Amino acid sequence: MTFKRGVTATLLLWSSLSQAQDLNGQLTAFFAQRLAGFSDEVSVQVRTPASMLPGCETPQFSVPGNTRQWGNVSVTARCDNEKRFIQVAVQATGDYVVASQNIPRGGALQPGSVALKRGRLDQLPPRTILDINQVQNAISLRDLVPGQPLQLSMLRQSWRIKAGQRVMVIATGEGFSVNSQGQALNNAAVAQNARVRMTSGQVVSGTVDSDGNILINL
Hints:
Layout: H1 2-34, E1 41-46, E2 60-62, E3 71-79, E4 82-99, E5 114-120, E6 139-140, E7 155-156, E8 166-173, E9 176-184, E10 193-198, E11 203-208, E12 214-217
Parallel strand pairs: 8-12
Antiparallel strand pairs: 1-4, 2-3, 3-4, 4-5, 6-7, 8-9, 9-10, 10-11, 11-12
Protein name: Flagella basal body P-ring formation protein FlgA
Signal peptide: 1-20
Pfam family, one: ChapFlgA
């Protein structure tokens, strides 16, 4: 009797381990697809006990839109009408942007001052920049040293227009377009909002385009 109980317990343990391993593979494939373009090497470790895992062989996975991309993540697993929450640790390896030389505060980032480095993305500080094109001509808000991962909070985009500058304001509506000049009241980068005082004294707001014009949709 004791022998049968031992065999039964062993089979149940083996079944749970096998299920967990299969689920781990499915989750790895799920996150590999989700992180395509960011990481080419993804590994997932299931943290939830085997007794709390979904019962079906191929559950449907989903994560909320605002969920972090890697690190500790909560995944919803659905099996027909059953829903389980699985806690996983997602390891992702890929390229991220670092300073390749000393960059002083207020300095503009040029192609030679930054580089891509390969490493564990899940071990990086939040909002680390992955696209090197995103930092070109940006301005550093602090002193940076070689090898330092660059975060969005460390940079700002270079000003396309500056306060006091004469700018062209282009107002467009259905079937018409009107151009006029004014004076910028604030610094602004491309795609940011700028306030302009017109020659009439009226203050208007619009979006800065790549040519330094202020666009207003009426």
